[in-house]
Specification:
about 450 residues; FAD/NAD(P)-binding domain; five-stranded antiparallel sheet; 21 strands
């Protein structure tokens, strides 16, 4: 059978665009459908606008801290509409970049909603197209629990388009998005409370980093309410009340839920076509990103495995190489660096201390917590944490963690070293750049005392 396309991609986010244009580069006939915005969540309602907001929020600290270096900042003021305008201009530029990348690669674009009819047939708007292979790259979408009053809350999607900033906000959740938006709103002058149902947020990160992050957020004036569950939301004129499990009420002008994301598979026709989904709606795939229907593939957040934009991009590249380049490429998921763009940043690569203790019989922990040089003059009290985890039998560094300014930039380099098999000896033999925070990673010599059964 002759198909309209060798590959048809549903979803033009980072993963879908990379897979499509790489496949076209290998000579495949490729079509892609996107009914919202090119670039997906990351470009339009995630990584990019969020990082721009983080930069904006940092300036409140910068203006205050500059006084310690002799600057007088009497006339600083902030315009939320100006920030939104600048953010929108940059996103529109990126949308055009993605469109040009696809066009230059020869990918046919459909700016309409697409759904799967069967193993080789896709409905795009009011027409049908056939494809030898179909790729699902529709990402994820915010998930808000169905409590009474859920219609009154916003998600991170709406937070990027507020007409005005609230005076008080409650943020519900304990992951990346909740922590990052707490720092953003507080930095922009909003009275901020973060509520999380568990005992400590940022589950999955190293405990030392999580504890210091909680201290830093509290020091900045963000109220943290752990082990707290909201059972309902009530509207009170122009404000909202969060009703807690113990009957207490917390009032705010806005309530933002950042309680996770779910795979964006609703209405795609996948189950009708025979594609198996898990209980969250994620597409189940094998090691070659193939679903239960051999001609239908899925990558990125829609598979709900490693929900990070660079992972989706890497998977898209590998898929194109395997399907159309004849290259048996794979993605190495073992050392994926990641960063929470909180204030300060929290970044990590490799294993946490608890994970390392479960995996290795003997480990050494190297840790340094200190006041960065900058803040010896600002008086802010901000602390920085650096931590290395080493497998003592091989001397390999198996985990690196940092809380501090530009942690993401620093951990990126550490990730390269770890993927190259760096040992603690390699770190020790590397000359540091002085004075920097990063040099602490190559100057830590004494491990933490070993834990005993009672410690």
């Amino acid at each position: 059978m002759i198909y309209d396309y060798d590959l048809f991609t549903i979803g033009a986010g980072s993963g879908g665009v990379r897979a499509s244009r790489m496949s076209a580069g290998y000579g495949a006939r490729v079509g892609i459908a996107e009914d919202r915005y090119l670039g997906g969540t990351c470009v339009n309602a995630g990584c990019v606008p969020k990082k721009l907001f983080v930069y904006a929020a940092h300036y409140s600290d910068d203006f205050q801290e500059s006084r310690g270096f002799g600057w007088a900042t009497r006339d600083s003021s902030f315009s939320w509409p100006k920030l939104l305008q600048q953010k929108d201009t940059e996103i529109q530029r990126l949308n055009r970049v993605y469109e040009r990348l696809l066009t230059d690669a020869g990918v046919t674009q459909y700016h309409e909603r697409a759904s799967v009819v069967d193993a080789h047939l896709v409905r795009v708007g009011n027409q049908m197209v056939t494809a030898e292979r179909i790729l699902i790259a529709t990402g994820g979408t915010p998930s808000i629990p169905g409590i009474p009053g859920a219609e009154y809350v916003i998600s991170s999607n709406e937070a990027f388009h507020l007409r005005e900033l609230p005076g008080r906000i409650i943020i519900v959740g304990g992951g990346y998005i909740a922590v990052e938006f707490a720092g953003i709103f507080k930095g922009l002058g909003v009275d901020t409370t973060l509520i999380y149902r568990g005992p400590l947020f940022l589950r999955g990160f190293d405990e030392d980093s999580r504890n210091l992050m909680a201290k830093e957020m509290t020091r900045r004036g963000i109220r943290l309410l752990f082990d707290t569950l909201i059972t309902a939301i009530e509207k009170d004129r122009a404000r909202y009340n969060a009703i807690l499990a113990d009957g207490a009420r917390k009032q705010a002008d806005m309530i933002l839920y950042a309680t996770g994301r779910r795979p964006n598979t609703n209405g795609l026709g996948l189950e009708t076509a025979g594609v198996h989904l898990n209980e969250k709606g994620a597409v189940l795939v094998n090691n070659e990103y193939q679903s239960s229907v051999p001609s239908i593939y899925a990558i990125g957040d829609v598979t709900d495995r490693h929900n990070l934009t660079p992972v989706a991009t890497a998977e898209g590249m590998v898929l194109a190489k395997r399907l159309f380049g004849g290259i048996p490429a794979t993605v190495d998921y073992s050392n994926i660096p990641t960063c929470v763009f909180s204030q300060p940043n929290l970044a990590a690569v490799g294993l946490t201390e608890d994970e390392a203790r479960r995996k290795f019989s003997r480990i050494s922990i190297y840790k340094s917590e200190f006041t960065p040089l900058k803040h010896t003059l600002t008086g802010s009290g901000e602390r920085t944490l650096l931590k290395l985890i080493v497998d003592r039998d091989s001397d390999r560094v198996v985990g690196a963690h940092m809380v501090g300014a530009e942690a993401g930039e620093i951990i990126q380099g550490i990730a390269v070293a770890m993927n190259a098999g760096a040992t603690k000896r390699h770190f020790d033999e590397t000359i540091g750049i002085h004075p920097t925070t990063a040099e602490e990673f190559v100057t830590m010599r004494e491990p933490e005392p070993e834990r005993t059964a009672l410690s």
